[in-house]
Write a structure and sequence with these properties.
The chain is mainly alpha-helical. It is built from 19 helices and no strands. Helix 1 packs antiparallel against helix 2 and helix 8 packs antiparallel against helix 10. It is globular and about 50 Å long.
Length: 393
Amino acid sequence: MSFLTSLAIIFLSALLLGSLFRKIKLPPLIGMLLVGIVLSPHILNLISPGILNISSDLRQFALIIILTRAGLSLKIGDLKKVGRPAILLCFLPATFEIVGYIAFAPLFLKLSIQESALMGAVMAAVSPAVVVPRMLKLKEEGYGTNKGIPQMITAGASCDDVFVIVLFTALLTTVGIGGFDFNVIWQIPVSIVLGIIFGVFCGYVFSVFFKYFKVRDTVKIIILLSVSFLFVALENLIKKYVPFSGLLAVISLGIMFNMKSEERASRLSIRYEKLWVFAEIILFVLVGAEVDVSHVLSDGGSAIAVLLCALVFRIIGVFMCLIKTPLNFKERLFCAIAYIPKATVQAAIGAIPLSKGLECGQLILTCAVLAILITAPLGAIATDLSYKKLLTR
């Protein structure tokens, strides 16, 4: 199968099945994921080896687009307006869910504590691709806006992804060396601080540069993407000497650019959304292509049990964030439901442990795919059916 023929089959199949899922009010990404599973070397084998060889790079490209979009659309003012609950939603539900995986994955899946924590970091992120469009719909229709519920969930979901990805990067190093490395204690905060400083500096420079040098938005996107790729390359180049988070630099660049040049950031965010149409297909099809169906059949039952137990921890975490807020029980229940869907981050980082050669890699990927297939439609349907009953207009 030639490279171009494979691309044609991937795009046409993903668009067709994605549109069918959209017709039945389900996230189209589920259809794209199923296309990848069916076209994979484990079933029909219709994906060119040339595409599979660069699969990890293409998935990282999609991850950079996700983080840049999050940065360009994240308004610090929204977090300040909603206050403490929005800040807690950025990390507390994910932390509770990771604790759930640490508690149950060793029991059901026979993983070590470190491997369970790594699995939790992969699984704990909420999906902006599923959540944010629904929160925008709520804002347009006026549901929950008097208490800032859509704004709070949108801001929390965007930051939640960043928190999980940073934690995942740190845990990946720990699991990779087969034990806890005490160097991580100082490397994690240093990599976070350096990533933020570098990203903020570049975001400020670009906001000033684009103010005085007029270029097309398409050229701006090419420049920002190129710099984002260089951030990731720099991390790999200097990681032996200086800890540095390239992904955190990417989102920090977007946040600073948005703070200093909100109008330009809004236009670029729309352009990135269009670019995401291409990246989304590549991401979900290729992560589906990595899945070995035999592992899903053998480990699926235990993985689903762990997933459901961890979701209970996540829901408890959401309720903890909303203590001492004016939200009533129904509104808090809606927030917990809206925080269920998983998809984007799981697809972007779920296959990384496998590509690094970790023994738990295939199991983590299997669980990530099952989480997408179960929680994305479940969360989307539950959100759509419940918001009129649980929120006031």
